[in-house]
């Protein structure tokens, strides 16, 4: 960024005379001349932090919520119970299905013994073939009845398990919209769980920038997350994913950038900014062929809601002029309006403020 500073603002140190009221002694004011930058600034797009693994848990059955074992912010393990729905009716159905299985097995035992008895009588020629066939048919029907009721009991037992909501993976509970006594419905969210060890930043960029990212022309990207890291986070190109689809309305492409696992304090929904280096392949529009005007950030004066710099007039006297700032560029800052190329800016605003 030091080289960008040298290219964008050529410091032409000069001494301008200024007079204090009632004094003819000149006070030196160090200045520099504002010139357009010879290179475009790195562009940025607004982004959002999201979890790579983020699950919204809901019920598969209807019932009243009778237990909530986790609250927002709790860490949970895979398979841990998080919520429970009233399952008394389902448990009764499961018990009834189990009783029907027991009854069918008892009938099967009777049919099996009868079939064995009929085979012995047939061997002694006490009964005919038709009686033996009837006994065999009843025995096979009892077997099929047991299998059918076993499947029905298994379905009832499986359905009773739907009344317990468990964590699909280890993570953090993000949001719990349900409360005790709520009526759970299929598809109605009960809570969300996300994995804090796998986070990413999602942004939408233009088609031209997306093509440059696919070709790897930007090298490593930089991610800025206010409140989490004091400096920008460098992300290699291997951690950047450009989706193959384009939004039909905005004509933008979604870009996903994986964050380092060592980064702490990141939560889904945080605001982030994705920086794209214009000097590494992102073409600037023709209207922006002339670079922006940059001034040192140290010369900016902030008074209440006013932002300005001290500009020297024709007599060399520094006058405070209001400006509108743009993007930062290292120790420089872009000026969108208020100064022009060729203006001389006081490098020491405190000293310039004392000159009358």
TrEMBL record:
SUPFAM superfamilies: HlyD-like secretion proteins
Pfam families associated with the record: Beta-barrel_RND_2 (PF25954), BSH_RND (PF25917)
Signal peptide interval: 1-20
Keywords: Signal
Domain CusB-like beta-barrel as annotated: residue spans: 201-278
Protein's UniProt keywords contain Secreted: no
Limits of the Multidrug resistance protein MdtA-like barrel-sandwich hybrid domain: 54-192
InterPro entries named among the record's database cross-references: Beta-barrel_RND_2 (IPR058792), MdtA-like_BSH (IPR058625), RND_pump_MFP (IPR006143)
Listed PANTHER family: HLYD FAMILY SECRETION PROTEIN, MULTIDRUG RESISTANCE PROTEIN MDTA
NCBIfam families per record: RND_mfp (TIGR01730)
Entry similarity comment: Belongs to the membrane fusion protein (MFP) (TC 8.A.1) family.
Stated name of the protein: Efflux RND transporter periplasmic adaptor subunit
């Amino acid at each position: 960024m030091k080289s960008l500073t040298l290219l964008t603002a050529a410091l032409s140190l000069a001494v301008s005379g200024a007079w204090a009221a009632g004094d003819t002694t000149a006070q030196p004011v160090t200045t520099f001349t504002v010139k357009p930058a010879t290179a475009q600034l790195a562009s940025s797009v607004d982004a959002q932090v999201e979890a790579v693994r983020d699950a919204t848990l809901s019920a598969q059955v209807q019932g009243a919520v009778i237990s909530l074992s986790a609250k927002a912010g709790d860490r949970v393990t895979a398979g841990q119970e998080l919520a429970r729905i009233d399952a008394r009716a389902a448990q009764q159905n499961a018990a009834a299905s189990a009783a029907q299985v027991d009854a069918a097995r008892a009938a099967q035992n009777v049919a099996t013994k009868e079939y064995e008895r009929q085979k012995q009588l047939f061997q002694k020629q006490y009964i005919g073939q038709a009686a033996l066939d009837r006994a065999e048919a009843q025995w096979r029907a009892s077997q099929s009845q047991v299998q059918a009721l076993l499947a029905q009991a298994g379905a009832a037992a499986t359905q009773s398990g739907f009344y317990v909501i468990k964590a699909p993976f280890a993570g953090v509970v993000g949001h719990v919209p349900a409360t005790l006594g709520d009526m759970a419905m299929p598809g109605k969210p009960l809570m969300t769980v996300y994995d804090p060890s796998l986070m990413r930043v999602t942004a939408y960029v233009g088609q031209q920038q997306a093509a440059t990212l696919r070709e790897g022309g930007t090298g490593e990207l930089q991610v800025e997350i206010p409140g989490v890291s004091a400096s920008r986070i460098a992300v290699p190109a291997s951690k950047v994913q450009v989706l193959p689809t384009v939004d039909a309305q905005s004509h933008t492409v979604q870009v996903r950038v994986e964050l380092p696992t060592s980064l702490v304090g990141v939560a889904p929904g945080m605001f982030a900014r994705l920086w794209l280096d214009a000097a590494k392949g992102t073409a600037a529009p023709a209207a922006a062929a002339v670079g922006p005007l940059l001034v040192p950030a140290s010369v900016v004066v902030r008074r209440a809601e006013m932002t300005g710099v001290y500009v020297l007039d024709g007599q060399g006297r520094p006058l405070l002029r209001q400006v509108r700032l743009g993007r930062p560029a290292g120790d420089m800052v872009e000026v969108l309006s208020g100064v022009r190329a060729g203006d001389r800016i006081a490098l020491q605003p405190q000293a310039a403020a004392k000159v009358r």
